[in-house]
Amino acid sequence: MRPIAVMLAAWLGFGAGAAFATCDEVGYIATFEVTEGREQAFEAAIARVAAKVMEVEEGALLYSPYRGDNGKYYMMERYRNLAAREAHAKDPAVLALFGPVIGTLAADIAVESVSLVCGE
Fold it and tell me: Do the Cβ atoms of 84 and 59 come closer than 8 Å?
């Protein structure tokens, strides 16, 4: 199984709040390709972003960065609903923290949406 698939399975199946998930929940996985030698700066910057998101974005259920292989990092994102996701990163305090993250990247951020599997 690919590393991203393992992380996704763990995150959706066993992650924080999994027992409290509702079918309105939305998720995203952002992939960051960091410039070689800039990993430490990226990690410090992305940790500040994650902490601020969880502090100020009421609808964010999970916003956690993960280190992958070969300079790749992943942000696991869970939001209460689509409106909460659409409100993401609108707070000026959060927006101000993205500059240092962007400055460490070797490529554009790739964001993939995922949907919660809900039984009837």
Answer: yes
